[in-house]
Amino acid sequence: MRAQFVLSEIGVGLRRNLTMTFAVVVSVALSLALFGGSLLMSDQVNTMKGYWYDKVNVSIFLCNKSDAESDPHCAKGAVTAEQKDQIKSDLGKMSVVDNVTYESADQAYKHYKEQFGDSPLASSLTPDQMQESYRIKLKDPEKYQVIATAFDGRDGVQSVQDQKGILDNLFGLLNGMNWAARAVMAMMLVVALMLIVNTVRVSAFSRRRETGIMRLVGASGFYIQAPFIMEAAVAGLIGGGVACGFLVVARYFIIDHGLALSEKLNLINFIGWDAVLTKLPLILATSLLMPALAAFFALRKYLKV
Fold first, then answer.
1. Cα–Cα distance between 109 and 211 in angstroms, integer?
2. Residue 242's closest CA among 212, 284, 304, 295?
3. pLDDT tens-digit map of 245-264
4. Distances in Å between the alpha carbon of 228 and those of 34, 162, 217, 225?
5. Can you state the angle between helices 221-251 and 163-206, rounded to 10 degrees?
């Protein structure tokens, strides 16, 4: 009987404040969709970091004849065979180095023509203008500075470049966008909480005679509170369900179908369905607990006899 009464009161409360209930559902859905989206964005950035950092190379570019005339780092002339052998030998002794690949000027020219053959500059370049280089795969991409310290400024070395620096700029941008999404999410959560509190107070005020009678006949505080708390929880849970549906649909159309980014951007390792599905229980639990707690604290003054 008590459970039936509570359920009937929930239905009454939701119907009486239909407009505000709808606003609560929409605000909770949007804020939790942003919450889930920011979590997935973090997973995506971490996945990309793991994928790309594993492929990062440190490049030691060697001086050629052209550099000897124009680059102060190569003032002592083009790299000699002895200097190249010494560099390779020193790299082989370093514990941070996984493997070393040598690229000749002819190979560099061939790769440049393959990648930038349509560039106007490509027609004016000759193989002897290209730089020889050593491409070093590190066991730990964070150890770039060890290579830079050991070889930057050495005779025959024009420069030491780390591809990780380029990736760091990209991931910095992605992380900035993620934090911006979290800021919007926080504002939406505040709006949702305010709507929940106002909806509960309006509902409690409209039923103040019923709650007054219940106090007089000795009903417990929890028994009086339960319908209001569950109204907020139900509205929040509906919003959480909408947010979960939005994330699933977004993942399906953006990555798998529709935009099909997984097919168009083969160089990006996208997160899988497991990352999405593991976030859904957290979103649903948040959508249930957040409105219930907000309603509990909003109702405390209405229980004072």
1. 84
2. 284
3. 999 999 888 888 777 777 77
4. 27, 59, 19, 6
5. 140
